[in-house]
Amino acid sequence: MTSKQVRIGVFIPSGAQALDVATVDVLAVMSKEYLGIMPMLPAHMKELAPSVTVSYITTPEQGPEIPLTANMTIKATHSYEEPAAAPGQFDVIIVPGPDPAESFEEGGLKWLRTQFETPGVDILSVCTGIYICGAAGILEGKKASGPRGLQDDLVKKYPGVKLVGEKYRWVQDGNLWSSGEFRSSSLFRSFQPTAIAGGITNGNDLMAAYAKACGRWAQPVAELGPVLTDVGDRGQIYGESPNRFMLGMVWTIIKGWFASVGTSSKPEAPKDKAV
Fold this sequence. Notes:
Blueprint: E1 5-11, H1 18-22, H2 24-28, H3 32-35, H4 43-48, E2 51-58, E3 65-68, E4 72-75, E5 78-79, E6 92-95, H5 106-117, E7 122-126, H6 129-135, E8 143-144, H7 151-157, E9 162-163, E10 170-173, E11 176-179, H8 184-190, H9 202-213, H10 219-229, H11 242-264
Parallel strand pairs: 1-2, 1-6, 2-5, 6-7, 7-11, 8-9
Antiparallel strand pairs: 3-4, 10-11
């Protein structure tokens, strides 16, 4: 049965990757509000869509200004302590990826754990958002994805989770959905093949798959959204092995080195003499 309203909360305790946060728009375009302003769509498609609200939740310590990558800042709509962010106020909680070395405030972790335990609430973890989920204790006994290059680190920190991020872009286990992505910092720290492959936009694939499977959206709307945003057409299983992707990356870096050498070895153009 489809919903008349879908209430989404995006939980960002301290900061996040801008592209991870932007994945929420894949769901937001499947709203009555968005589709209602598209004149080319027939009325029945707009009527099928639920009303979608999006809130941005952070910690009291962080305050309303939330830093993202690419020198972006967004304003939080709520602190997790506010009644408007209490359990039962959301249907979906999206957890975008922070710096995996971040420490997370216990109050926010308890809030996420309570949301996870609230019937009818789905948790959607994007990339390193899995670290917040792990710190909140909601990965225990679960199958989960996560950054392909950080699987070993995740296993050490959260041994109770079954990690499948080497193979799957995204995976569902009950009300926990998680996606894995590429982290360039892993590549240049360790330069291991497992640090590569995937893409920083795998969260988009997760959102498209979630909308089609969760039952909150009518199927025609869940199929229209990914068409409008041009996402969700990649398979759940990676089509390229880590080793093959690694070779491609290494070759690109080598070509860049040759290009830089060629540029630096070019003689400077003669300067015009003063008349």
